[in-house]
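Objective 1b of the project was to move from sequence-level analysis to a structural picture of ligand recognition. The entry below was assembled by the postdoctoral researcher (A.K.) and checked by the PI before modelling. It contains the amino acid sequence of the target and the SMILES of the bound compound, flavin mononucleotide.
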Amino acid sequence: MTDTLTLLKTRRSIPSSNIVEPGPTDAQIEDLLTIASRVPDHGKLAPWRFILFRGEARAAAGEATAALFARKRPDADPKAIDFERTRFTRSPLVVAVVSRAAPHVKIPEWEQLMSAGAAAMNLVVAANAMGFVAQWLTEWVTYDEEARALLGLKPEERLVGLVYIGTPNTAPFERPRPALADIVTDWTPPAA
Ligand SMILES: Cc1cc2nc3c(=O)[nH]c(=O)nc-3n(C[C@H](O)[C@H](O)[C@H](O)COP(=O)(O)O)c2cc1C
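Corresponding predicted holo structure:
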């Protein structure tokens, strides 16, 4: 348990371009996704799913997003297009966490979406617990309908984020965290 607390107290994201080989094996990926799926889920709807970008598919996915980027931004700097090409090869494994939130008789879509966020965070924590590092990114592909389709999402699905996983080639450094005094209050009854 102490190990879990230490992990949660010290975990940091590492920029995706500093996440290198080796990545998780197929067996480790299965473990990671099993853990990612083990989140609170009101109504047991599993309102999320995962799309894996690994191996050679990563370069092809990068070429496809770069082509879309170039079409949408004809004035884009060629360096920016080149950067797009590396979108999925930056790290050994990229997991798209997809929200399948949909209207339901009892469970609000808001709750389904939050469950998907929990799945993404479980994935990040599990990757770290396994000895890897991770970064959860959204960037423009999350908010562009054509990019989402290209990544394999259905029109009614939303991208919770791309979780980059692998081994760090740099040490993490701490960043400021919010002071609890600024974000925690005790409830008091409303003034009558
Ligand atoms: C939903 C979501 C989307 C994010 N998208 C981006 C992004 O597009 N670009 C970015 O630099 N950081 C993004 N971040 C922030 C990083 O994942 C991460 O919080 C940051 O690198 C520092 O994280 P740490 O406190 O875990 O070390 C996003 C975080 C969340 C929760």
